[in-house]
Amino acid sequence: MRILAVDVGTGTQDILFFESGKTIENNFKLVMPSPTIIVAEHITRATARGQAILLTGVTMGGGPSHWAARDHALAGYKVAVTQEAGRTFDDDLTQIERMGFEIIEDGEAARRAQHPGWQHIELQDFDAQAIITALRAFDLDPSVEGLAIAAFDHGAAPPGVSDRRFRFDFIEQTVRRQPVPSAFAYPAQDTPAELTRLRSIAKSSARYLQLSGSSPDAPLLLMDTGSAAALGALEDPLVRAQSESILCNIGNFHTLAFHLLQGQIVGIFEHHTGEIDRFRLEQMLLKLANGTLTNREVFDTSGHGALILGDGRPNGAPFPFLAVTGPRREMLRGSTLKPYEATPHGDMMLAGCFGLLRAFADRYPRMAGGIEAALL
After folding, report:
1. Beta strand segments in the chain, E
2. Quick one: which of 188, 325, 303, 197 has its CA closest to 254?
3. Are 324 and 236 in contact (CB under 8 A)?
4. Distance between CA atoms of 245 and 248, rounded to whole angstroms?
5. Distance between alpha carbon 115 and the CA centroid of its chain, in Å?
6. Alpha-carbon gap, residue 322 to 304, rounded angstroms
7. Backbone φ, ψ for residue 191 (5° rounding)
8. Separation CA 60–CA 266 (nearest Å)
9. I need a surface site. Which of 23, 92, 122, 153 has the fewest CB within 10 A?
């Protein structure tokens, strides 16, 4: 059994080609530039040439690609974008037009794509052709029995509603309904409608199944990337052994922390990594542990929010075991909170992929045996 697990971040995309029957350390893996970084590089080169850009494809993660397209327009060069691709930059298409972008129909996009004056760039978080090409270059058969893909999804907020507030309202609803990290993993057909980025990835995954020779019915699991990293941290035996812990993933753009008690979420917060320093992060973690962190405190400092479940912890209770993952985890090195840098199966950068595999086993019990044998 083979499963392709891909954790799509802002800086990197982390890829694990899982094959049951192998030790987990002998599975093949790649850590490559993220799709939004790749798109941003294409746009930046077009800006240097003074060439108009045509953006088609599906809704994907923004950040670097968004800033590069904005700068291209501010430099006085044309940006044309289809509606679905345009929602990468804002769910409200009128806001995209205000940025100086031209919104065009698919037919017009197909015509311009043939014109040498336009640099055509396809937007997608999951580039099936690139991954298949990489696997085949090393003589690997890319066909799989399942796909598991994680990405960060703000969700499609209604006009006038803060993306940050909309995102955390969704997190709160999910945690109250099922207070475990795997609650943020969805079989493709069950992905909430508001998670437009994940649903776009589902469209792109069909191309992978076709081009790789996989069954078109192979199951697809979609998951929030921060939750995948937290679940992956639990694959570290020392982290898994704790009855109470805080799992903190410090990503390039977002920091997410879960407070777990006997495997259940009793508190959670999410912030923008670029808006915090070590002191602020330590204070939020301390308040998360004692149950005093408020949603307003996080939101008013440009974060997403916080949620505390239950009555908090007794005064004088020791600070929980703190496990840290993520490419910015150095922020807590040397902290008095004594963080432990989780290394599930010897590879922190694949934490999200290991979390995806664990969630896949949970959601598809008939395929769980081969996964769990490798993970355990």
Report:
1. 2-8, 12-19, 28-33, 52-57, 79-82, 102-104, 118-123, 146-151, 185-187, 220-224, 244-250, 254-261, 264-272, 305-308, 321-325, 340-341
2. 303
3. no
4. 10
5. 35
6. 21
7. -65, 125
8. 31
9. 23
Assigned token pair, 346: 């010897």
CA dist., res. 314 & res. 290, Å (int): 8
The two three-digit tokens of residue 18, written as one number: 């899982």
Cα distances (angstroms) measured from residue 362 to each of 17, 88, 97, 221, 224: 19, 31, 43, 11, 15
What is the full DSSP assignment across 95-163? HHHHTTPEEE-HHHHHHHHTSTTEEEEEE-S--HHHHHHHHHHTT-----SEEEEEE-----PPTTS-H
Provide the 3-class DSSP secondary structure of residue 152: coil
Contact by Cβ (8 Å): 278, 271: no
**SS3 category, 318:** coil
75 alpha-carbon distance from chain centroid: 31
Are 293 and 267 in contact by the 8 Å Cβ rule? The answer is yes
Question: In whole angstroms, what is the distance from residue 121 CA to residue 86 CA?
Answer: 12
Model pLDDT for residues 300-353, shown as the tens digit of each residue: 999 999 999 977 666 678 899 999 999 999 999 999 999 999 999 999 999 999
Q: Which amino acid is located at 202 in the chain?
A: A
pLDDT in tens, 6-49: 999 999 999 999 999 999 999 999 999 999 999 999 999 999 99
pLDDT of 113 reads 93
Six token digits for residue 173: 């609803």
- Using DSSP's 3-state secondary structure scheme, residue 228 falls into helix
CA 206 – CA 223 distance, rounded (Å): 17
Question: What distance in Å separates the CA atoms of residue 353 and residue 358, rounded to the nearest whole number?
Answer: 9
Q: What percent of the chain has pLDDT over 70?
A: 99
Rounded Cα distance, 7 and 374, in Å: 19
- Is residue 54 classed as helix, strand or coil in its secondary structure? strand
* First and final C-alpha spacing in the chain: 17
The pTM for the full model equals 0.93
Q: How deeply is 26 buried, as exposed, middle or buried, from its count of CB atoms within 10 A (0-12, 13-18, 19+)?
A: exposed
Instruction: Taking residues 166-177, report their average pLDDT.
Output: 95
At what angle are helices 196-212 and 128-137 packed, to 10 degrees?
Answer: 40
